[in-house]
Amino acid sequence: MQCFLFAGNVISFCLFMSPVPTFIKIWKAKSVQDFKSDPYVVTILNCAMWSFYGMPFVSKYNILVLTINGFGFFLEIFYTFIFFIYSNGSKRKKILLALLAEVVFFVLVVFIVMYFINSMKDRGFVVGSICIVFNILMYFSPLTVMRQVIRTKSVKYMPFLLSLANFLNGVVWTTYALLKWDPFVVIPNSLGALSGLVQLILYAVYYRTTNWNDDAPPSINMV
Q1: How far is CA 90 from CA 37, 86, 95, 164, 222, in A?
Q2: How confident is the model at residue 178 (pLDDT cuts 50, 70, 90)?
Q3: H helices of the chain, where?
Q4: Alpha-carbon gap, residue 152 to 192, rounded angstroms
Q5: CA angle 62, 68, 73 (to 5 degrees)
Q6: Would 196 disulfide with which of 79, 113, 158, 166, CB 3.0-4.6 Å?
Q7: What distances in angstroms separate CA 150 from CA 142, 163, 203, 207, one per listed residue?
Q8: How far is the C-alpha of 210 from the C-alpha of 120, rounded, in Å?
């Protein structure tokens, strides 16, 4: 079981690092082009919630959950900051509003849990349940990108490494959680593995129809 826990943290690290090639492209182009900010903004709150869940006053023996998600939290903030810099006005407003909503929600959850719930078991259940929701949102945040792929028949703006890391991360953590039987981990990560698999299938289907040399963003309606 420990080997799955170690593997899960390694894959999670790779998942957090997988957008690096995308942000190198953004930096070189000085534009976010048709890349979406959704996965990075959603993952900030997801990592914040799992870091809170891993705190010793919320759940026991989850130090690795705390450390890997704490790392992911700061890295996703960095990604979002870069995305913000190279975005236009409307996209910047969308990012700021989303981040503001996340801060308000997180502070509210921490306040309620720490001041109104005294039992560690109850704290773990409440925070773990919320984590399930946001873990699912993180895994399915690429849905906007997937819709774009189907519309344009192009996978240019759906990073392969992020899709692969999502799939592997979901598979490894689902396997670990099944052995330990932790429903808070099984539910979101099994759905995450499914989401990653769908993305990989789309990548295989539309890879040949993608115009990799076209630097101009395709003409589509932005979400």
Answers
A1: 12, 12, 9, 30, 11
A2: confident
A3: 2-17, 20-29, 38-53, 63-85, 89-116, 120-140, 143-152, 160-180, 183-206
A4: 24
A5: 120
A6: 166
A7: 13, 15, 10, 11
A8: 51
Q: How far apart are CA 59 and CA 115, in angstroms?
A: 16
Q: How many CA atoms lie within 13 A of 155 on its CB side?
A: 17
With contact defined as beta carbons under 8 Å apart, do 136 and 188 qualify? yes
pLDDT mean over 204-212: 80
What separation in angstroms does the CA of 92 have from each of 30, 35, 80, 85, 141?
15, 13, 10, 8, 18
Element at 212 (helix H, strand E):
none
Residue length, the chain?
A: 223
d(CA 81, CA 193): 28
Question: What does 160-193 look like in DSSP terms, one character per residue?
Answer: HHHHHHHHHHHHHHHHHHHHHT-HHHHHHHHHHH
Task: Please give the pLDDT value at position 212.
Answer: 67
Q: How confident is the model at residue 89 (pLDDT cuts 50, 70, 90)?
A: confident
